[in-house]
Amino acid sequence: MKTNACVSSLAEVSLESAKWKLKFISAYFRRKDANAALLSNFEVFQLLTDLKQQRKESGKNKQSSGQQNLNTIMYETLKYISKTPCRYQSPETVRDFLIAMKGHKLTKAEKLQLLNHRPVTAVEIQLMVEESEERLTEEQIESLLQTVTSILPGDPEEQQRDSAMATEDKGDQA
């Protein structure tokens, strides 16, 4: 009798693990654009946040060691990625950013770098855009920076500190 219960509980854990993996894979491949191999930090953040919420709602406490390893990877990834600018983004911001980027001659990977990192200096742009010195003029770099900072939200606390420092600098010059 105990053997049947163990086999049954193992089957449930294995089935739950398989369902979670299937959801992850299907969510990944649900993207229909030509950029299917590339995911932005925002998309990964959303996916992992949604999966975490679903798992919390399901209330299953018993997990296999493989499932625990997956939980650790999810936790560490969310911990890291929640410290990046993507946590302030939304689907609308990403869409608006990509539309605005159509005017700039950048590769998909370069646009993704800009989206993920939200550069605020010309040096950061030069690090993200390959051969930027040959491909972009100073005006184009400034235009890129303006587009990035105007569309992609940054850390509100950091922006508040920056504006306070800029105000202080203006007061010192007067």
Tally of strands: 0
Which stretches of 5+ consecutive residues score pLDDT under 50? Answer: 5-13
What is the approximate shape?
elongated
How is the main sheet built? none
Q: What percentage of amino acids are in beta strands?
A: under 5%
- The number of helices is 9
- The amount of helix comes to over 70%
Mean pLDDT figure: 78
How many angstroms does the end-to-end distance come to? 86 Å
By secondary-structure content and strand pairing, the structural class works out as mainly alpha
Which series of helices and strands comes N to C?
Answer: HHHHHHHHH
Model description:
Helices cover 73% and strands 0% of the residues. The chain has 174 residues and is mostly helical. The radius of gyration is 22 Å and the shape is elongated. It starts with a helix and ends with a helix.
Key attributes of the depicted protein:
174 residues; mainly alpha; 73% helix; 0% strand
Topology overview:
Blueprint: H1 2-29, H2 41-58, H3 65-81, H4 91-101, H5 108-117, H6 122-128, H7 132-135, H8 138-151, H9 156-173
Short recap of the structure:
The chain is mainly α and about 170 residues long.
